[in-house]
């Protein structure tokens, strides 16, 4: 039944959206830290990561046509670091090479650059180079900000707007971002899996650009919040986020993530634009009523078993 596609985290946020669009026309496998969390049951065969002995992952790659990779970490936590994520991605690419995988579709991020002083973006750039130098056909997709059910950033903005009387924006809030619906992003990835964007690095975004301030205002209106939106220097706002993180048992945002946001790293010039606009997505059936009802923890989702 069609090609065999191996997806990192096929039950996750981005991987799950891609799997949804391919499940009836391809054989899907998943590489994951949580093989027991398989929302597709027997329709997707799950394999655990084994970076201590990468050769044990060879079975996951055997007979695979396309490898869809989004493996990374959002921040350094314990033994999990950006540098380790680069080394582990090198192992995944080596397995793809050895198995004769014909194409890699790699999910990167807008403005990935080895020269960046922000480790998240510099190590994303290093991984892009590994993909380009692999000798395997590839497409690198660079989304700026992917939104949808299960996304962390927009959901947690809504959570704080629902539960706090004041919401603080870093600085003036006029820095731009390019939200893109996860299903639209998945459709671009499916096109790349099918052969589009051969050997290209493609920035992708929704149909319109937003300032962060206007995004927050739109989320506030959608969820019916009466929170007062105030502006504060990033250093002041970060103190509040660290306090919130202590209560929530999570890392809400890191200082580097705030720098990336305010430097417009979530914005790219002339991206490939697809999907519905952010306002249209917010107005979608059931979106606003569910958004921010509970806090989504990065540590619980990706770092704690």
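^ structure tokens above, recovered residues below v
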């Amino acid at each position: 039944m069609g090609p065999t596609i191996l997806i990192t985290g096929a039950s996750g946020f981005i991987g799950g959206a891609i799997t949804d669009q391919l499940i009836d026309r391809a054989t899907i496998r998943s590489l994951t830290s949580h093989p027991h969390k398989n929302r597709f049951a027997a329709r997707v065969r799950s394999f655990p990561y084994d970076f201590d002995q990468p050769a044990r992952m060879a079975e996951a790659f055997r007979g695979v046509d396309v490898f869809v990779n989004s493996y990374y970490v959002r921040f350094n936590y314990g033994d999990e670091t950006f540098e380790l994520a680069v080394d582990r991605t090198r192992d995944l690419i080596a397995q793809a090479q050895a198995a004769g995988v014909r194409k890699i579709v790699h999910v990167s991020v807008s403005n990935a650059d080895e020269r960046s002083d922000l480790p998240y973006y510099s190590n994303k750039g290093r991984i892009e180079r590994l993909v380009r130098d692999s000798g395997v056909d590839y497409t690198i997709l660079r989304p700026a900000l992917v939104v949808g059910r299960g996304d962390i950033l927009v959901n947690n903005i809504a959570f704080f707007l629902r539960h706090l009387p004041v919401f603080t924006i870093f600085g003036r809030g006029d820095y731009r971002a390019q939200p893109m619906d996860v299903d639209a992003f998945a459709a671009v990835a499916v096109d790349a899996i099918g052969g589009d964007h051969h050997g290209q690095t493609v920035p992708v975004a929704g149909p319109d650009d937003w300032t962060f301030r206007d995004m927050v205002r739109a989320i506030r209106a959608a969820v019916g919040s009466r929170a007062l939106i105030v502006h504060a220097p990033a250093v002041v706002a970060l103190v509040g986020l660290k306090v919130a993180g202590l209560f929530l048992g999570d890392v809400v945002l890191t200082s580097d993530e705030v720098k990336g946001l305010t430097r417009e790293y979530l914005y790219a010039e002339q991206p490939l634009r697809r999907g519905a606009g952010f306002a249209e997505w917010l107005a979608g059936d059931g979106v606003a009523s569910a958004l921010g009802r509970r806090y989504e923890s990065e540590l619980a989702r990706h770092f704690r078993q």
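The chain has two domains: 4-146+180-205, 153-177+208-268+276-303.
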